[in-house]
Design brief:
By secondary structure, the protein is of the alpha+beta class. The chain has helices at 19-24, 66-80, 101-104; strands at residues 6-8, 16-17, 27-28, 36-40, 48-54, 59-60. The strands form 2 sheets. The protein has a 4-stranded mixed beta sheet. The termini are far apart.
Length: 123
């Protein structure tokens, strides 16, 4: 097996695309291996590397089935549910807190809360 062809930034030939470019076209790699590498040089560090796939070998993105939609909705609901009070917070609970802001900062009452205040600043 030979080495991958390496192209410099913006000099890759037609027919290759990155994973994000494939998704924008409604395609997926479809099990094919990386066909080439794209490198963008940087001054102080090593080059940025992007992997390229062949567009002609790419397959269409699979359609979402009702079961997949249901599983995605269930997973998103679990990310919004506070483990302490078991209520839907209405937003994705940050991993740094591990619970909703009401449970994490019980000393801040709702009437004291505002969009401009932070629980970490002195009043």
């Amino acid at each position: 097996m030979g080495a991958l062809p390496v192209y410099r930034w913006r000099l890759a030939p037609d027919g290759y695309a990155t994973y994000r470019q494939l998704r924008a076209l409604g395609l997926r790699p479809g099990g094919q291996s990386v066909a080439a590498e794209l490198q963008r040089p940087r001054r102080q560090r090593g080059p940025l590397v992007a992997y390229l796939y062949r567009i002609d070998r790419a397959k269409p993105v699979r359609a979402m089935t009702p079961g997949r939609w249901a599983a995605l909705a269930k997973a998103n609901a679990a990310r919004r549910t506070c483990p302490a009070c078991r209520r839907d917070a209405g937003y994705v609970i940050p991993a740094s807190l591990g619970m909703c802001s009401t449970c994490a900062f019980p000393d801040n009452s709702p009437e004291d809360a505002s969009w401009n205040s932070s629980p970490h600043t002195a009043r």
